[in-house]
Design goal:
The longest helix is centred in the first third of the chain and has 24 residues. Strand 4, helix 8 and strand 5 form a beta-alpha-beta unit. The chain is about 40% helix and about 15% strand. It is globular, with a radius of gyration of 20 Å. It has 2 domains: about 70 residues, no CATH class; about 160 residues, Rossmann fold (3-Layer(aba) Sandwich), CATH 3.40.50.150. It is built from 9 helices and 7 strands. Helix 1 crosses helix 2. It is an alpha/beta fold. The structure holds S-adenosylmethionine. It is an enzyme of class 2 (transferase). This is Phosphatidylethanolamine N-methyltransferase. It holds the Pfam family Methyltransf_25.
Length: about 260
């Protein structure tokens, strides 16, 4: 059987066939579960539920009470609606969230997070001691943004394209110590990538760092863009316990004259 699926990959690398097959089967299974739950969803004027419908409804009620599962279903639905924009089938693992926030903490002052999704990195930032009031969460998906406002009521949640960050008034004009990026950068045109980096570094104080992750071995920001913006990239951490394994990159200014 030949597989012709385009997998979401923030790292944009070619993946081995066994991995493509695994993703394909997980996707099929997830779709079955979802359609099963849809069948079980009670209609407004329906009578008593029987058979598969009743079991589906019971499972639906059970799963929606399980926050972990509900988060994954929400993420999966968002991915189905916009695979390129979401860029992953599942939220990042706790191991990746811990790695990408390892150098960030209360000492960083204010922090910007790009592409917060369901808040996997946001929760890790909170665990590292970053107060909600010191977080600006930039998320383009309106449903995710709405839920982020509920989950992190003191954080500044901006529902906008991260490439438009440059003129955005955050933290009353104060600069931030770190930017944590969960965006699918490799799914974006170069121009948008440049806009995101320019905007982020315009908010970053001297010595501040931009952290991003990718599934590939190379930095997703091309060398030409790094040179043009005067940035340096260093691989900071590798996370084997993520599916698939991921790498965290740290971008900093080469000199005080850089963006
Ligand atoms: C790969 S998901 C990461 C979500 C979360 N950070 C995590 O690691 O589980 C990418 C997120 O970036 C958001 N996103 C994509 N393009 C964006 C853009 N231009 N500006 C802001 N957010 C964007 C998507 O809606 C999605 O929530």
């Amino acid at each position: 059987m030949s597989l012709k699926i385009r997998l979401p990959q923030p790292g944009g690398v070619s993946v081995p066939e066994w991995w493509a097959r695994l993703q394909w089967w997980s996707l099929r299974a997830a779709r079955r579960v979802e359609s099963f739950l849809q069948q079980g969803r009670p209609k407004a004027k329906s009578g008593p539920l029987w058979g598969q419908q009743a079991v589906g409804a019971a499972w639906g009620a059970l799963l929606s009470r399980n926050a972990w599962m509900a988060e994954r279903l929400r993420f999966f639905r968002a991915w189905r609606a916009d695979p390129r924009g979401i860029g992953a089938i599942m939220p990042s693992s706790a191991a990746l969230a811990s790695a990408i926030t390892r150098e960030v903490g209360s000492h960083s002052g204010d922090v910007i997070e790009l592409g917060s999704g369901t808040g996997a990195f946001t929760r890790a930032l909170a665990r590292r001691g970053v107060a909600q009031g010191a977080m600006a969460l930039i998320e383009t998906d309106p449903d995710f943004a709405r839920q982020l406002r509920r989950d992190f009521p003191e954080a500044q949640v901006c529902c906008l394209d991260a490439a438009r960050l440059a003129g955005e008034p955050l933290f009353g004009g104060r600069t931030v110590g770190a930017v944590v990026c969960g965006l699918p950068l490799l799914n974006m045109p170069l121009r948008q990538q440049v806009g995101i980096l320019r905007g982020s570094f315009s908010h970053l104080r001297p010595g501040g760092a931009f952290y991003l992750f990718t599934y590939g071995p190379r930095c997703p920001v091309p060398r030409s863009v790094l040179d043009r913006l005067g940035l340096r990239a260093r691989r900071a951490h590798s996370v084997i316990l993520n599916v698939p394994p991921a790498h965290v990159w740290k971008l900093t200014r080469r000199s005080s004259k850089a963006i």
